Amino acid sequence: MEVDETSGIAIAVAATAAIMSPRVRHTVRRGLVFGLAGIMMAGDAVASFAHGVSRGAQQISMPGTDTAEAGGEAHATTEGA
Is this structure's pTM higher than 0.90? Predict the structure, then answer.
């Protein structure tokens, strides 16, 4: 089926009218805002996960260094001074 020139123009006019419609523009804008918010939340989740993995790897690679020992060493040095 071949589209003649008037049908092409009618399709272009209908598409332009839909794009210029306040309802369509509002919906597109809202979709973009929610999409961007979703991307930002996903980025934060990935960064948080990576930070947790990094902390876990550091704790595994340096056994015996925990906050209680570090506090005990600081306490011992202040007593000796």
Answer: no
